[in-house]
Design a protein that fits this description.
Layout lengths: L9 E5 L4 H14 L2 E5 L9 H7 L8 E4 L2 H8 L5 E4 L5 E2 L10 E4 L8 H6 L4 E3 L11 H15 L7
Parallel strand pairs: 1-2, 1-6, 2-3, 4-6, 4-7, 5-7
Length: 161
């Protein structure tokens, strides 16, 4: 499904593996008017019942696209957008970023995160959520939801809120 209007945010899942995470993130995208991008390979089929269950009856309203690779994503969204890369390897906290409408929030796979070549290309745009070192990682859907709503908070919320 595609929508020609500019979304408030672009949420990118690079090689997502767990259907319920994608479903929950998709539901959040519908709630705020963001576009969801899925970069292959995907760890599931788009008709996966767990994906649909997590997205519930909102999936039909989701503005999303599936792209073959990172290069295609960059071409489709455009180079002029501000890309933010979420990774535990970042030195900058999410709260230090200055989000604006139309920004691109890029999240890696549940098992391995973002590929190092993507992170290393733009270290100044890498962000992380604070957490104690005893925690290896946070749930992808929880992280995406936190970052998406921080971005919305920063630039004044939704027009209907």
């Amino acid at each position: 499904m595609t929508d020609q209007t500019d979304p408030i945010l672009h949420v990118v899942l690079h090689s997502p593996e767990i259907p319920p995470n994608t479903g929950n993130i998709g539901r959040s995208c519908v709630a705020i008017g963001a576009k969801l991008w899925l970069v292959k390979p995907l760890g599931y089929l788009l008709d996966d019942k767990y994906l649909r269950r997590a997205g519930m009856d909102y999936w039909q309203f989701l503005n999303y696209e599936v792209v073959e690779n990172w290069e295609e994503l960059r071409q489709r969204i455009g180079e002029e957008k501000q890309y933010w890369y979420l990774t535990k390897f970042a030195t900058k906290l999410v709260w230090e970023a200055e989000f604006t409408p139309g920004d691109v929030l890029v999240f890696g796979s549940e098992g391995s995160g973002l590929p190092s070549e993507i992170r290393d290309e733009n270290p100044d745009s890498c962000l992380k959520l604070p957490m104690y070192e005893e925690v290896r990682s946070l749930n992808l859907a929880s992280t995406a939801n936190t970052v998406v709503y921080e971005a919305i908070r920063q630039f004044g919320g939704l027009s209907n809120s």
